[in-house]
Structures are given as structure tokens and as C-alpha cells.
Amino acid sequence: MTVGDVMTRGVVTARPEMPLAEAARLMHEGKIGALPVVASGRVVGILSEIDVLKTFARALRQEFAKPERWALAFR
Predict the structure, then answer these.
(1) How many domains does the structure of the chain reveal?
(2) CATH number for position 62
């Protein structure tokens, strides 16, 4: 048996310039754990659920690091 025998065809992909929110939506709606990132017909990377989650966590840390945000959150 080869990889070609079991691989998925018709793969959903992302482009490097695609907004992260759009890629995350595709992943969520399609229950996809990772998206190959394609530019000029070549795979240039892969975007995983972990990549999206790390970026989300980083954004939350930055947002809640601002004192005025804490004040709003605890009102």
C-alpha cells in the first residue's frame, strides 16, 4: 500500500494572503485539522488548529494586558 492509495484528494487549501479568520472558518466548518498553504501551485506551508489557537491565545493576552480592558471585564 502507498500513501497515494490512502491520501485525501480534493483537499481544501489556503493562500498565504488569506485572512486568518477565513482560514479558521474553513477549518471549523469543514472539521479540518490542518490546511495546506499553496502559492503558485506549490505547497509553501501548513496551517494547523494549533497555529490558529496559539494566535488566538496571543491576541487575548495582548488585549487583556491593557488595564482598561480588565476594568471593563470586571464591571
Answers:
(1) 1
(2) 3.10.580.10
